[in-house]
Design a protein that fits this description.
The complex is a heterodimer of chains A (about 160) and B (about 800). Chain A has two domains: about 80 residues, Beta-grasp domain (Ubiquitin-like (UB roll), Roll), CATH 3.10.20.30; about 70 residues, [2Fe-2S]-binding domain (DNA polymerase, domain 1). Chain A is about 35% helix and about 15% strand. Chain A contains five helices and five strands. In chain A, helix 2 crosses helix 5. In chain B, the strands form seven sheets. Chain B has a seven-stranded mixed sheet, sandwiched between helices. Chain B has a five-stranded mixed sheet with strand order 7-15-14-13-8, sandwiched between helices. Classes of the chains: A alpha+beta (about 160), B alpha+beta (about 800). The complex binds FE2/S2 (inorganic) cluster (2 copies).
Chain lengths: ~160, ~800
């Protein structure tokens, strides 16, 4: 079995895995990082979004071996060490951008990538970007509100990069 | 009002764990020694099983067991049940075909459970499943709702015409008489499209058996763990109730689909004992499409009789409801008692007669999905009323006004069971008209037309019966259970509070709303209140969450338990302050001797209750109270949605450009959470109207919409932001004055959208989902009809 090594949420990890292991399985089953969810089997729902080398990726659509040597951030790595929520997480809470919470980790990770590249998105741009993240609970209304609020907060705090 | 008390938009207590990836969903749970289950499913819609050869699979690496329906039968494990008895017009009981957790003799839909493989790893279980040889005699299938009763195919060999029941409600003779007097009759044929619930968390289960204790534990994605335990014990015969613990931890959305007791969860618990190790199963999305209970699927002909002033005289409805291949847990009540009793809508209709035929087909079972019966009723009523207004040349708002039940008519007895207790339909309509800016609608329509777009506006004035439900009433209608709710409040000696509820949160935010409720009533800070739900071993027996019942029924139980806490606290306070009990007042968390400044906080009283060195005689130590609440009536949330669309006549694409919802949910505990529920419901309603459709191949019975690539879920860019308003009439039937808000959006939206689209294109004969293709074709039909005139 191949050994894969990568940096996950700032920590170096190394595990032996079956070659067919998906990145999301590696995170959930080998590392116990169960914040990244699986909502589909066709790469559609976005519940599994994480960052690989700073870009959002559907971790159900990447093999663990493809992430070898790379830097991965999951939802568990978003809040500060002292527990302070990342501005995107805080905006989701403030604007009731989550209900059951199952789509939420993927939403937050996806939004972080959006705001890094487009710090001032319009509502339309937010809705277009979220095409790959399905939420069944919120009707997206408050998610969109949260993203626009997070964008504003991040613009106001230049020291805090989107990741 | 406390800043975090009743009426405050308190930010949710549960959010931190969800936002940081620290939730505990069922698939996050792993037990030592765990094995994995994989279900072999039927590739055929209908087939007789001549034999199953599992020898190769059993010999495959890592396999612990390959189990079939024969093994279930050998262990005396019973079938899954439907808990609501419906009687046909002729008095005969509904015909429930057998529903084994693993097929016995026949498979009846694509995805039906044939066998389960338990292995060391999931991949080993999957690989072994491919080695199972099933000898099928493939049979012709029936999938169409409309054709189920005339098809020569029998889903269950001994049930003629695939008919579960032929049910009726209302007064046929009076309704006939009303129609014979009518000045105008509006007729409409409607298909309420079949939907797939698709909570984003797939169903999952971990079954575990402790041979030392002889107890089972089942972790499962359930909206009602106690009901699951009851059914698995009393009917399936898995284990006695006291030997079975059901835990529904964080659950990622339900919308009804996680109410039911399914095959997979049952098998995981049973198999755990057989293999002597925990057994885990998590649905893949394609399994969810195939085997989660679906929703809706009605074919309806409806008629409305009106007089020359546009007053409704009567309504006649015939519906065929597709229940799938087996009767799921509550399937039979959805198209009957949750449907026809709502056909009066917000209107004073003197005579109503409804007939519903429930049918079997070779499709997945159909059961409650957000709104359950009430969206179907609202869709019938509101498309009829809007069509009538068009035919009579009346403003649709005016026709509705003319027929509304007036605020001075409560309690209002409809001809179809329900007694509405309060409401103000004119108020919600007026507020919606204001929010949508109805006055300037003609100007907006002209602007759209100038841009080559067709603009339409549609109304939906809905009512729903929630807060399920008075036990005696539902019992008399055939329910196999009572629908009360339970609560327990435990003060700890240090003054913080544990609140136990028999209801269950799978996104609704009970941990926050219930904490607010208790914080307000008992005067303790919300952060010192912890709400516990979802574990049969921790919480009192409760009926769970569906039918927008948690606050109206579960919240009322909590209210009663808190009253008991206060009553006991008053006794203790009177003793400690040497005053008469009658002189003790309780307010904002303090017991005060009336007219003095002598007081004790509720935390001091709690401490005294656990350290009862100085305690009133005859009073038990401790401060913990339970209550059960059985509602006096259903609750009747109601309101008005108005939708404005623009249609591109060249492509048939519909865009929602203005969407308003005004709801009367009674008293509001947390407006932020309530609005969130409305948004989510509207999105599902718009999804049904424009995007979502479950399609089976009519010949083969294969599911053609079996993934998110084929089944069109509403995505962010399909939807607008919504304008949400509230009007309030406090509910007189429960102590909190609340009604329930979970389903309203999904109930009202389909009619609002379809009324808007048909208004825009000038063609009324259009079924959901109004896809671009269907809208474009309707436009062509309209043009041809015009040319022919
Ligand atoms: S689980 Fe990765 S996109 Fe759905
Ligand atoms: S919050 Fe439940 S799926 Fe988005």
């Amino acid at each position: 079995m191949p050994t894969v090594s990568m940096t996950v949420n700032g920590k170096a990890v190394s595990r032996e895995v079956e070659p067919r292991t998906l990145l999301v399985q590696f995170l959930r089953e080998h590392l116990g990082l169960t914040g990244t969810h699986v909502g589909c089997d066709t790469s559609q729902c976005g519940a599994c979004v994480v960052h690989v080398d700073g870009r959002s990726v559907k971790s159900c659509t990447m093999l663990a071996v493809q992430a070898d040597g790379r830097v991965v951030t999951t939802i568990e790595g978003m809040a500060a060490a002292d527990g302070t929520l990342h501005p995107i997480q805080a905006a989701f809470r403030e604007n009731h951008g989550l209900q059951c919470g199952f789509c939420t980790p993927g939403m937050v990770m996806s939004v972080a990538d959006l705001l890094k590249n487009n710090p001032s998105p319009t509502e339309r741009e937010v809705r277009e970007w979220l095409e790959g993240n399905i939420c069944r609970c919120t009707g997206y209304h408050n998610i969109v509100k949260a993203v626009l609020a997070a964008a504003e907060a991040l613009r106001g705090a230049p020291a805090h990069a989107a990741e | 009002m406390l800043s975090d008390g009743i009426g405050a938009p308190l930010r949710r207590k549960e959010d931190r764990r969800f936002l940081t990836g620290k939730g505990h969903y069922t698939d996050d749970i792993n037990r030592p020694g765990q094995t994995y289950a994989y279900f072999l499913r039927s590739p055929h819609a209908h087939a007789r099983i001549r034999g199953i050869d599992k020898t190769a699979a059993e010999a495959a690496p890592g396999v612990l067991a390959v189990l079939t329906g024969e093994d279930l039968a050998a262990d005396g494990i019973g079938g899954l049940i439907c808990g609501w008895m419906i009687h046909s017009k002729d008095g005969s009981p509904m015909k429930a075909g057998p529903h084994p957790a693993l097929a016995q003799g026949k498979v009846r839909y694509v995805g039906d459970h044939v066998a389960v493989v338990i292995a060391e790893t999931l991949n080993q279980a999957k690989d072994a499943a491919e080695l199972i040889e099933v000898d099928y005699e493939v049979l012709p299938a029936v999938v169409s709702t409309a054709e189920a009763r005339t098809s020569p195919v029998r889903v269950h060999d001994d049930i003629p015409a695939n008919t579960v029941f032929e049910w009726e409600l209302g007064n046929k003779a009076e309704t006939e008489a009303a129609f014979s007097r009518a000045h105008h009759v509006t007729r409409i044929d409607l298909v309420n499209n079949r939907l797939i619930p698709n909570a984003i968390e797939p169903r999952a289960a971990v079954g575990e058996y402790d041979s030392g204790m002889d107890t089972f534990t089942l972790y499962t994605t359930s909206q009602n763990p106690h009901v699951a335990r009851l059914v698995l014990s009393a009917f399936v015969g898995l284990a006695p109730e006291h030997k079975l613990r059901v835990i529904a931890p964080d659950v990622g959305g339900g919308f009804g689909s996680k109410i039911f007791i399914y095959a997979e969860e049952t098998v995981c618990a049973w198999a755990a004992k057989k293999v002597g190790r925990p057994v885990k199963w998590t649905a893949e999305r394609s399994e969810a499409f195939l085997a989660d209970a679906h929703g809706r699927d009605h074919v309806t002909h409806a008629e409305l009789a009106l007089d020359q002033d546009g007053r409704i005289l009567g309504m006649r409805v015939h519906t065929t409801a597709n229940l799938g291949a087996y009767l799921s847990t509550f399937s039979s009540c959805v198209p009957t008692y949750l449907y026809a009793p709502l056909l009066s809508g917000q209107y004073a209709i003197p005579a109503i007669y409804a007939e519903v035929d429930g049918v079997y087909t070779n499709t997945a079972p159909v059961d409650a999905y957000r709104g359950a019966g009430r969206p179907e009723a609202t869709y019938v009523v509101e498309r009829l009323v809007e069509t009538a207004a068009r035919e009579l040349g009346m403003d649709p708002a005016e026709l509705r006004r003319r027929n509304f039940i007036r605020p001075d008519q409560y309690p209002y007895q409809t001809p179809v069971i329900m007694t509405y207790d309060c409401g103000n339909y004119e108020a919600s309509l007026s507020e919606a008209l204001r929010l949508v800016d109805y006055e300037n609608y003609p100007r907006r329509k002209a602007e759209s037309e100038a841009r080559g777009r067709l603009r339409g506006i549609g109304f939906s004035c809905y009512i729903e019966a929630c807060g399920l439900a008075p036990s005696a009433a539902v019992g008399s209608l055939g329910a196999g259970v009572g629908l009360w709710e339970s609560a327990k409040i435990r003060f700890n000696p240090t003054g913080n509070v544990l609140v136990y509820t028999g209801s269950h949160s799978h996104g609704q935010g009970h941990e926050t709303t219930f904490a607010q409720l208790i914080a307000s009533q008992l005067g303790v800070p919300t952060e010192q209140v912890e709400v516990i739900h979802g574990d049969t071993e921790k919480t009192p027996f409760g009926m769970g969450t569906y039918g927008s019942r948690s606050l109206a029924v579960g919240g009322s139980a909590l209210y009663k338990a808190a009253e008991k806490i206060i009553a006991k606290g008053r006794k203790i306070a009177a003793h400690l302050m040497e005053a008469a009990e009658a002189d003790i007042e309780f307010k904002d968390g303090k017991f005060t001797v009336a007219g003095t400044d002598r007081s004790k906080t509720i935390q001091e009283i709690a401490f005294a209750a656990y350290v009862p060195h100085n305690f009133p005689a005859g009073v038990e130590p401790g401060l913990e109270e339970s209550a059960f609440y059985d509602p006096l009536n259903f609750t009747f949330p109601a309101g008005c949605q108005i939708c404005e669309v623009e249609v591109d006549p060249d492509t048939g694409v519909v865009e929602i450009v203005n969407f308003v919802a005004v709801d009367d949910f009674g008293k509001i505990i947390n407006p932020m959470i309530v609005e969130g529920q409305v948004h989510g419901g509207i999105a599902q309603g718009i999804g049904q109207a424009l995007l979502e459709n479950c399609v089976y191949d009519p010949e083969s019975g294969q599911l053609l919409t079996g993934s998110f690539m084929d089944y069109s879920m509403p995505r962010a860019h399909d939807l607008p932001s919504f304008k949400v308003g509230m009007t309030i009439t406090e509910n007189p039937s429960n102590p909190l004055g609340v009604k329930g808000c979970g389903e309203a959006g999904a109930i009202a939206a389909p009619a609002a959208v379809m009324n808007a689209v048909t208004d825009a294109i000038g063609v009324n004969d259009l079924q959901m989902p109004a896809s671009p293709e269907r809208v474009w074709q309707a436009l062509q039909r309209g043009r041809m009809a015009q040319a022919a005139e």
